[in-house]
Design brief:
With 77 residues, the protein is an alpha+beta fold. The protein has one domain. It contains two helices and four strands; from the N terminus they run βαβαββ. A four-stranded mixed β-sheet has the order 2-1-4-3, with helices on one face.
């Protein structure tokens, strides 16, 4: 059975302090996709704000990208 992964691109200091895992695996691509968006949203709302997190599909997996600066959703602009 194929596994699908959600990978945190970079472990920032907030993630290190919380011992956050870098890779999570799922049985279906849909589960991985849904979780990647939820995980990115959680990181944006609970971490210090120095970085912004977003979900990016790479092949059949998802990467939580990490950018300098806080994340602002388009509907908030």
């Amino acid at each position: 059975m194929k596994e699908y992964y959600v990978v945190l691109e970079y472990i920032c200091q907030c993630a290190k302090r919380r011992n956050l895992e870098q890779v999570r695996s799922f049985d279906t691509k849909d589960e991985a996709e849904e979780h990647s968006y939820e995980w990115a949203d959680t990181l944006n709302n609970t971490f210090c704000g120095r970085h912004g997190f977003d979900s990016v599909e790479v092949d059949d997996n998802f990467v939580i990208s990490v950018e300098n600066g806080s994340f602002v959703e388009a509907c908030e602009i």
